[in-house]
C-alpha cells in the first residue's frame, strides 16, 4: 500500500468538490497533506517533496485541475531523482482534459479507482525547451497551444463567468463561450517548423496545438486517436478561415474528429528535436494555463513518467 503525499488545490473548480476532498482526507495511508495558496505553489511544494522524500512507497497525490497537475509534474522534474515519484490524480478542475483522455472519470470515480491501483504505469509527457515566450524548460501532459486556443484560455480565465459556471458544474461551457468571443479578435500568423529533415512553413496559422492526447479546452477532441500510452507527440495546425467555415469545422471537431478532413486543418507527427518558430507576438498556453504573450522558438521532445492510475 502506498503512502500518499497530497498536494490539493482547494480553489480548483471553484471548490465544488469539497465533499470528495473531505472523504479523501479520511484515507488512512496519507503521509502528508498540503493545500496550495497561490499560482505556482503546487510546483514549489512538488519540488520540495522531490528533494526530501525517501519513502520507497511514496506516491504524490494531486487533487485539482489540469493546471495543478502540470505544476506538480514540473516541480517533481525540477529535482533529479534516481527513482521518480509516481503521480496519482483526482480531477477537481473545470476542464479535466487529462482525466477525460485516460478515462479516469469524475473525482468520485477516480477516488474509487485509486483504491484498487496496485502499480505504476508509464505515460507519455511532452517537453519543450526554449523561448515560450520566455526561456524555459516545461513539461506537459495534455497540450501546448499558440494562437487561438491560447487566446481562448486567456479569455476564459479572465471572465467571472467561468467561476459562476463552475458552481453549476458546467465549467467546460465557459471555454465554448470564449471560443465565439475570441474568433473575431484572433489574427493569423506565420509559423515555421523544422521537423526532422522537413522544413514546413505555415503563413496563415490560426491555431497551433502540440498535443499528447485527445482533448483540450474542456472536452474538445482536438485529435481523436491520440494516446498518452504511446511515446509520441502530434501537432494540429488550423489556418485562418471564414466564420462560417469555422463553425462547420468546430461542429465536426466536437462531434467525431471530422475537422481533420478540412483542407485548412493539418495534422503533423512530430519528430524528436523538432523546432517551432513564431515571430509574431501571440498568446501561449500549456495544459490550459497561460504562458503569456510573445514570440516563440523552442525545441520539442517527449519522455515517459510514472503515474499511479
Automatic annotation (TrEMBL):
<dbReference type="GO" id="GO:0016301">
    <property type="term" value="F:kinase activity"/>
</dbReference>
<dbReference type="InterPro" id="IPR016064">
    <property type="entry name" value="NAD/diacylglycerol_kinase_sf"/>
</dbReference>
<dbReference type="InterPro" id="IPR001206">
    <property type="entry name" value="Diacylglycerol_kinase_cat_dom"/>
</dbReference>
<dbReference type="InterPro" id="IPR050187">
    <property type="entry name" value="Lipid_Phosphate_FormReg"/>
</dbReference>
<keyword id="KW-0067">ATP-binding</keyword>
<dbReference type="GO" id="GO:0005524">
    <property type="term" value="F:ATP binding"/>
</dbReference>
<dbReference type="InterPro" id="IPR005218">
    <property type="entry name" value="Diacylglycerol/lipid_kinase"/>
</dbReference>
<keyword id="KW-0418">Kinase</keyword>
<keyword id="KW-0808">Transferase</keyword>
<comment type="similarity">
    <text>Belongs to the diacylglycerol/lipid kinase family.</text>
</comment>
<keyword id="KW-0594">Phospholipid biosynthesis</keyword>
<dbReference type="GO" id="GO:0008654">
    <property type="term" value="P:phospholipid biosynthetic process"/>
</dbReference>
<dbReference type="InterPro" id="IPR045540">
    <property type="entry name" value="YegS/DAGK_C"/>
</dbReference>
<protein>
    <submittedName>
        <fullName>Diacylglycerol kinase family protein</fullName>
    </submittedName>
</protein>
<keyword id="KW-0443">Lipid metabolism</keyword>
<dbReference type="Pfam" id="PF00781">
    <property type="entry name" value="DAGK_cat"/>
</dbReference>
<dbReference type="InterPro" id="IPR017438">
    <property type="entry name" value="ATP-NAD_kinase_N"/>
</dbReference>
<keyword id="KW-1208">Phospholipid metabolism</keyword>
<keyword id="KW-0444">Lipid biosynthesis</keyword>
<dbReference type="Pfam" id="PF19279">
    <property type="entry name" value="YegS_C"/>
</dbReference>
<keyword id="KW-0547">Nucleotide-binding</keyword>
<feature type="domain" description="DAGKc">
    <location>
        <begin position="1"/>
        <end position="132"/>
    </location>
</feature>
